[in-house]
Amino acid sequence: MRTTVELTEEQRAELLKLAAKRRLKGFSQLVQEAVDSYLENQASRQDFIQAALDLKGVLKGKSSDEFEERTRAIRENWR
Fold this sequence. Notes:
By secondary structure, this protein is an all-alpha fold. The chain is 71% helix and 0% strand.
């Protein structure tokens, strides 16, 4: 399927260089691979976020307090 994608001159030039290294006529295959990778990454990201949300409320009592204190200590020393 054909569509229009806006690229900067620099992006186009880099894609053409990469395509030439792979001995491709154009850079459509590279764009398809990039889109596939992006979409896969987004799906994985959503799974990761949901897994983190599913943990809400798992720690209780002393375990929760210890985790919160360790997290606070890490944040204080974060650069």
